Amino acid sequence: MARVRRVAVCATAVVATVFAATACTPPTAATGVDPNTAPRADEPAYATAGPYDVGVTTIELSDRPMEVWYPVQPGTADGKPFDEYHIRGFVSSFFDGLLDPSVDPVFTTTAVRDVPVADGGPFPLVLFAHGFASFRLQSSNLTAHLASWGFVVISPDFLDRGLRSVLGEPPAVQRSDLDVADEAINTIRSASTSPDGRFSGKVDVTRVFPVGHSAGGATAVALLARPDVPSAIPLASGYLVSAAIAGKLDLDLSKPVMWIGGTRDGIVPLDDIRNGFEWTSGERRLVEIDSGHLNGFSDICAIGDGGVVALARASSLPIPEFLLQLGNDGCEVPPNVPSQELWPVVNHFVTAELRYRSELDPEPVGLGSGVQASLPHVLRYLHNP
After folding, report:
1. Are 286 and 277 in contact, with CB atoms under 8 Å apart?
2. d(CA 248, CA 4)
3. Which pTM value belongs to this model?
4. Is 3's pLDDT higher than 60?
5. Which of 42, 232, 282, 378 has the most beta carbons within 10 angstroms of its beta carbon?
């Protein structure tokens, strides 16, 4: 693996507080194609579903499952039921035993299980990394949306920091996020290069585009160190400049990064996300939306009355304060915006960026400054160039 270049090489000392640093100037961002000059610069083309139907399947890694969403030939899924999942399937056995048996909210996705992959391809590969105290299906609205626009999306369970582990049932073997991501990528590549099977010849094995939410955003950024990763998209995931200055982080931010954050996020300060944007020396974009930590970026607020926190409340279970904050940030409406209003915004920006970086779009679509006026709840959009 290529050696990463340390971000922020400064001669000054880091002061006592974790956020403070002195006499360091953020790098000048690299220049590229100005999205404002593209013919469809201001078109919110990817806010709605794409031309493909969507399939989903589960692949078993060595010690955990991985979900895969993929394009399906239009009409193939007609009449077939959409896939569903239950958040109770991701909690610890002890926690599940405390829940009222009648409390079992279901989330219905827009994908159909185990249908054939679409003709054509190979399709670009996206790796999705879920957040802390979460699970591989947490953002199925986004992952299925990407598949409808021509991507194969893999999402392994990061069990070491997943919901089941946080609720008292950690995995038997501890593994790093990068180790899990490496196995996930190698597994789907083997499936694509195999002469048989659903994904034979269907996945572009030359590159992988990581997207991650919260803690998974840090995973996505860390994967920039791989030579086969051209860019990354962290969602609601901050970057501590002082940690890099102190030499505690080795990150390669010389590649393109799109940072997307919520102005109501009570878990990850928006300033951390802005710092990540400022310290990205590659091409960079910053999208700030009227979202909390969860409602714009995951299914969680739309599961029952709000994911695992709603489960606990429905069964009158006490819940740790940190999990109450993390698992409910952005879910209460009002004052927060319903997930269904924010999903199209996130779907558009993530899809537009990935289609451009993967060369499905030869020039940027819907990434010009004027697109902000066509998308509700976008409070700020910056890009360089």
Report:
1. yes
2. 13
3. 0.93
4. no
5. 232
